[in-house]
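User: Thanks for the earlier help. One more: Phosphoenolpyruvate guanylyltransferase. Can you show the sequence and predicted structure together?

Assistant: Of course, both are below.
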Amino acid sequence: MTSTSPTDPGVPRLGDVVAVLAVKRLGEAKTRLAASRSSASDGLHRELVLAMMLDTMDALRRSGIDHTVVISPDDGVLAAAHGFGAASVRESAGHGVGVDRLNQAFADAAADARRRWPTVRTVMLVQADLPAATADSFRSVVTQARGMREAVLADRDGTGTTLLVRRSDISEPPHFGPDSAAAHREAGAVELDPEHLRWADLRTDVDTADDLDAALSLGVGHHTAAALGKRHPAPDHGPAMASEPMSVTKRFRPARDAS
Ligand SMILES: Nc1nc2c(ncn2[C@@H]2O[C@H](COP(=O)(O)OP(=O)(O)OP(=O)(O)O)[C@@H](O)[C@H]2O)c(=O)[nH]1
Ligand SMILES: C=C(OP(=O)(O)O)C(=O)O
């Protein structure tokens, strides 16, 4: 079963925008979150990582963005991305380690997007762990960044970056990693909403149990709700799925520690 999300036919499409997500091997992903949720099994943890990615992509699609690329070395991530209707790019081995590898992966996936969709004008590099993301916020961020060469949205504490909107002709790797908001500003990106008055949903990337609580208090999408064993996601995260939201979800029991 695929996991395509419904799109509202009334939402104009953002045909010149592509979203790019990078996800590492599921067995290595979100170690801080795994450590703080030690009651969740390995399977449930992987399930949650995938679910957060799918909710991020779901909100992107409902915002009007039809082109999404996911880059990962992990078969499970690539299969889930493909099942969702995104382009999946296998990350090549030997591109450095740590954040260098992440930044090169983003650059490689953006280059792939330019080849696939030559008319694309804007590339949005998006963290894949934004389960509270809403379509309205993605749409208004893209609108706000129009005309800018590069624009950065900082995370909840202001130090990290949850998304970077760039003109598609920029080929240099970005600067994700520790203090990436400052690094992106220093590289010339304009900070969107520097006073942090807007877009709490897009600023809430989930690295720890506290972040997950923050996302849950905003309301998470269907996939994350299902992965946590919650039956009813927040009402502003799109129409309910007609069928099980994610085939892989069905293989795991709901989290015992779901609140
Ligand atoms: N494709 C790819 N994605 C990466 C790589 N490193 C990090 N990412 C992804 O980039 C995003 C941001 O990374 P982090 O928020 O630090 O997530 P994480 O590394 O899974 O979490 P921790 O283990 O707790 O540090 C996550 O979606 C990661 O899966 C990489 O080398 N390749
Ligand atoms: C890689 C980043 O994310 P995190 O803080 O989630 O590790 C970043 O903010 O640049």
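User: Great, one quick takeaway?

Assistant: The longest strand covers residues 161-167.
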